[in-house]
Amino acid sequence: MLSNHFQNGVETVRHAWSRIPNSEESQFVDDAVGLVRKSDGSSVESLDYEVIENFAYREEQARRGKLYVSYLLVVKWLFALLIGIGTGLAAVFINLSVENFAGWKFSLTFSIIQKSYIAGFLLYALINLVLVFSSVYIVTQFAPAAAGSGIPEIKGYLNGVDIHGILLLRTLIGKIFGSIGSVGGGLALGKEGPLVHTGACIASLLGQGGSTKYHINSRWFQVFRSDRDRRDLVTCGCAAGVAAAFRAPVGGVLFALEEVTSWWRSQLMWRVFFTSAIVAVVVRTAMGWCKNGNCGHFGSGGFIIWDISDGQEDYSFAELLPMAIIGVIGGLLGALFNQLTLYISSWRRNHLHKKGSRIIEACLVSLLTSIISFCLPLLRECSPCPESDPTSGIECPRPPGMYGNYVNFFCSSDKEYNDLATIFFNTQDDAIRNLFSAKTIHEYSSQSLLTFLVMFYTLAVLTFGTAVPAGQFVPGIMIGSTYGRLVGMFVVKYYKKLNIEEGTYALLGAASFLGGSMRMTVSLCVIMVEITNNLKLLPLIMLVLLISKAVGDAFNEGLYEEQARLRGIPLLESRPKYEMRNMTAREACGSGRVISLPRVVKVSDVVSILRSNKHNGFPVIDHTRSGESLVIGLVLRSHLLVILQSKVDFQHSPLPSDPRGGDRSIRHDSHEFAKPVSSKGICIDDIHLSPDDLEMYIDLAPFLNPSPYIVPEDMSLTKVYNLFRQLGLRHLFVVPRPSRVLGLITRKDLMIEDTENVNTLELQSTSAFELEDLGFECVQE
């Protein structure tokens, strides 16, 4: 299994690299020749995280003073504030809606089953069906990019891959209302993953000033239009989504750092932390307002917080063995979950979705979920209520119309409860709260927990991949807490100690399954501590996470990596493949020739080249007086399209407009070259040129990037991979081994002091021997 996945990964990398063109004199690494086709037929495109230092950029930087830089810094913090407020309000709206829909559903069902269980089931199934239908209809007809959790797509975006539609306004609307329908409809999924996508959409829309398509935009917000600036905003949005979903601000920061981002710096850390703190304040304020009864059925549910601070105080050394077993079980079940969802999602894409049956599929899954959750508890005999403990605050059974611990469902006596209905016939948040609850030993039977584990695991696998917004955090916690509580029951029976709580083992089981499926460690550990409010369990959570991740890694990759591969998202992972050590940059370029452009090019030639291929970058060649060809830079396809559309830079002469190199004032602002986020941008077919326009020329010198990154042809592919990923590049020149060395730059050359007292002339005249003693040297030409 390991060797197969290893070989598949190597073949994927080789296939991507093989589509990159080269030439005899200089090779050129492009982003998989322009567009990479996804498995569903749509396309993805690389992002320009590199700063394009053309003359428009340099002129703009020269005009900016210290006051403008301070203004940009203030705006960045203001955007962080707005992202936190917006994401927090979106989370409040989603949770209020889900809890109220669920509350009305259970209240009506409980009131009707007092008279007729058949009528109660029909009403229960109908409400679920309507909610799920509304969700899948919104996604399929209005916002197709809102399906799924959205985390693989956002991870791809921060990795440098732009997927059409993932950060648009309609995707945000579809994500919010679709999550309300799918989660409120009782499907085996959660709203936490979609909240991460929601936060990213809010951040992106703020960064581009709204939506131009729906005429909801403001020029005041259109400050950060480059992909580089949007990347920072989207990172803040991801952290805000996790902070809102779990009320875990620190966990949100660590999630963004560990799971979704490929690039990080200390300044971004502060803004992400500030955004998460704002989300925590907004959510806390909303919950305080709802405690006064202003939120209907919201009550204490909705926002995940399973306080087990009154649970198990201590643990013995002998308990580490069953806890380690929980970690192994989590790794095995998590890896199996990833593999099953991968196979089923692949089959669904290849057979089911091609027939246009996404709405029917989601409705059938909804009916199956309603049948299982309603009918299985009917087959379970009720149990007598335990002796009431006034200090626990838990009532047995719960009154009709209420949901929580000890649900009276199809019981002959008023002092009985149905343990299977306590898990099934509940919201997932309350079911998890019941499984985590302390001082409720013997509330569940092992038969009921095992039945629920098998059925809910099956439902989670089947539901994953349907055309609705779906997160896997809460279903994973449900599955893990079920088998964790089962192990806890055996530990209580075997050790016979009074201080052992089954709820503690349920928490460890939840952590182990998430670690075995998603392969997160640090962020997940902090999230579990924050949502349970029990710091004493931190070492145990760390133990089961490490074990479950190690076991899961032995079988396959994490859930998000597997789903990204299934969706055709070309992620560059943190570590290059082992085979890259024996490959060079020249070998990776493949056999295609580079398509280059002369400095002064005819408009008709540009149009012909853009129509004949999908490359997104072109080397620009100039000729010296001696006739030698010289690469002077790189021009992007998007920049060429802007130039063709505006026509203001056309000239009649085939000679350079400025023989000194094009250092002249140009008629474009750098923002004009920025492509709208998650959109296709300008297409060559959208540009209309007259015959006279086609006969004119363009001097490309002012628009090209004169300093692209360059590597020698014999550099190992491992070093090329690390350079490409860590710098967030889109293109990389591969050139022959240079014949001359102008100098060497070391650490001291980069330590530029902000003072005018440095005698640079004296430094330049220092001998090479003296400089070498200082730790660097300069080799003169």
TrEMBL record:
Gene Ontology cellular component terms for the protein in this record: chloride channel complex
Location(s), subcellular: Membrane
Sequence ranges assigned to domain CBS in this UniProt record: 583-650, 704-761
Keyword Ion transport carried by entry: yes
TM helices/strands, residue ranges: 68-96, 116-139, 233-256, 268-287, 320-339, 449-467
Keywords linked to the UniProt accession: CBS domain, Chloride, Chloride channel, Ion channel, Ion transport, Membrane, Repeat, Transmembrane, Transmembrane helix, Transport, Voltage-gated channel
Cited Pfam families: CBS (PF00571), Voltage_CLC (PF00654)
Gene3D superfamilies the record matches: CBS-domain, Clc chloride channel
Membrane topology annotation: Multi-pass membrane protein
Domain of life: Eukaryota
GO MF annotation terms: voltage-gated chloride channel activity
Family in the record: Belongs to the chloride channel (TC 2.A.49) family.
Name of this chain's protein: Chloride channel protein
The species this protein was found in: Arachis hypogaea (Peanut)
